[in-house]
Amino acid sequence: MEPELERPITASEAGTRNENTALPASAPPRDMIWVFLGPQGLRCGWSMLLFAALYHLFRIVTGIVFYSLGLVGDTFDFSASALFFSELIPLLALLGAVALMSLFEGRGFLSYNLNGQGRAGNFLAGAAAGFAALSALVGTLVAGGWIHCAPATLATPQIFRFAVLWSCAFLAVGLLEEGLFRSYAFFTLARGINFWWALATEIVLCLYLALRGGNGALGVYAIAALGFFPCLLLHKKSAAGSAFWQAAWVTSTVFGYYHTTNGGENSTGIFAAAAIGFVFCVSIRVTGSAWWAIGCHAAWDWAETFFYGTADSGMQGRGHFLSATPAGNPLWSGGADGPEGSLLVVGAILLLLLILLALYGRRKPAEPAPAAH
């Protein structure tokens, strides 16, 4: 995924080598180092493979421990506690894998898009933006008659209890999914991927999804197609920071694919997940870290599941403030998917992007990783 580097010829070799001089027997193994190492250390493809292996190993071990302790079971009910412990398993696996990779690569743990100034402020700003955008979407659906909201039926102590529990659960979701897609993976791909590797990844992913099947697969195909020409143009122009946008294309598409296993998703909801993933990539560009994305992700889900009581990827949470039910054409209401399945979600995503650019657009973007050719 990175440019090939030839081994430099030393002065002594230059003085003695001629056209008829045979290469020493030890040269080929030494020359093959470029396959594994590039200008920034271990090449990103090998880093991703090693990271994936560690993550899945830790996830299996952590899952066995949690299951033996009775923290998770064979069935899943969409409650705050069940969601928290089910997300804690891969989150701990992610932390372990990133910790080992940071030692192996000689980087700080927070260097994978988690460093930078104003992390707490960015997190809170992202949380406010996520809640505002989801509220605008639900408000539009209510005004159009596509969602009916009922008042709260919980007692005040229960409201506060569930608010805290769902906050913990969705903070774990935000940390996990942004840690997977906008932290280690995005940072690693952005330092070494080029257009052809990105295109190959998109093709393989779409072919695999077509063979395996999944809910809302058309949403994945749509985001893959939308990214093709912009990324090709950046490649043709050899634009600085091209690898950043190639990585954004790949990780956003994979993020959409990640949601196709959710039982209640439709194509619009999958497209929305991938498109929001791209907005989160932009947030890294303008803020310098993934903390805005983490806050936005957690607050969006919290508002959707707890505050408004709508379906989230086809699942209805247990214990919510308001209660919302879809009405009318599912194309506009979102149907069983929830607000993310409505075509109006495109407006909410654009609102998120506008809020992000209004807050941070005038700042100098973080220095992009050098583009690969």
Principal-axes geometry comes out as globular
Strand content: under 5%
Question: Sheet with the most strands?
Answer: 2 strands, antiparallel
- Poorly predicted ranges: 1-29, 368-373
H/E element sequence = HHEEHHHEHHHHHHEHH
Mean pLDDT: 87
How large, in whole angstroms, is the Cα Rg? 23 Å
Distance from N terminus to C terminus (CA atoms, Å) equals 8 Å
Question: What's the number of helices?
Answer: 13
**Helix content estimate:** 55-70%
Mind explaining what this structure looks like?
This protein is mainly α. The protein has a domain at 114-360. It has helices at residues 11-16, 27-31, 44-68, 80-105, 119-143, 156-190, 195-212, 217-236, 242-258, 267-287, 291-307, 330-333, 345-360; strands spanning 37-38, 41-42, 147-150, 323-326. It has a two-stranded antiparallel ribbon with strand order 1-2. Strands 3-4 form a two-stranded antiparallel sheet. Strand 1 and strand 2 form a beta hairpin.
